[in-house]
Design a protein that fits this description.
Layout: E1 5-8, H1 14-25, H2 41-52, E2 56-62, E3 65-74, E4 83-91, H3 100-113, E5 121-127, H4 131-140, E6 143-144, E7 148-153, E8 159-168
Parallel strand pairs: 4-5
Antiparallel strand pairs: 1-2, 2-3, 3-4, 5-8, 6-8, 7-8
Length: 180
């Protein structure tokens, strides 16, 4: 590993997260759903605020520089309180392939295991053509749970399938839902 330190992020970190996401999205085949010109401060603040309300946002820092970020949020109705979804991870192009993503996922799983109400499941989607990400997610324990045919339109007009994946967080002891 590259000696990264993991820290929780808040909307106060939005400007450095914006820079990271734009850098990550600028490389061909980044895996991010948005192109660099679609990543705005409004978008970044929105996902960071959502992650801070019952979800999680973590940053990987090396030499005081943000080199990776992962966030996920609870889905909404109480019946889904045990699920973290809407997960996105971005790693700076110069740091890809150096274990930053794996460290961020390990920190996410550790954080999720200590959340209340308990998290028992983490969800994400990945493009079928993003084979490196799919290999990483499967190595981490995510399971492919379907295929959304032709869901992603690429810049050249072709489409790829989106692959929904789930990870069961076995360490979480799910508490019963409170009575209404």
């Amino acid at each position: 590993m590259t000696g990264c330190r993991i820290h929780p992020l808040t909307p106060a970190h939005a400007s450095i997260v914006l820079d990271l996401y734009r850098a990550a999205a600028s490389i061909r085949g980044s895996g991010l759903a948005r192109a660099a010109d679609e990543i705005t401060m409004t978008y970044v603040r929105a996902f960071m605020e959502r992650a801070c309300l019952g979800g999680v946002s973590l940053g990987a820092f090396r030499d005081d520089r943000l080199v990776g970020e992962i966030h996920a949020a609870r889905l909404g109705p109480r019946q889904f309180d045990h699920v973290l979804g809407d997960l996105t991870i971005a790693v700076h192009p110069q740091m890809q392939g150096q274990g930053v993503g794996s460290v961020l996922f390990a920190a996410l799983f550790d954080t999720a295991a200590s959340m209340t109400p308990a998290i028992g499941r983490v969800e994400l989607t990945a493009r079928s053509g993003n084979t490196g990400a799919l290999r990483l997610y499967e190595r981490l324990g995510f399971v492919r749970e379907g295929r959304l045919a032709g869901r992603v339109r690429l810049p050249d007009g072709t489409t790829e399938d989106d692959i929904p994946m789930g990870f069961k967080l076995d360490r979480a002891a799910l508490a019963p839902m409170p009575d209404d």
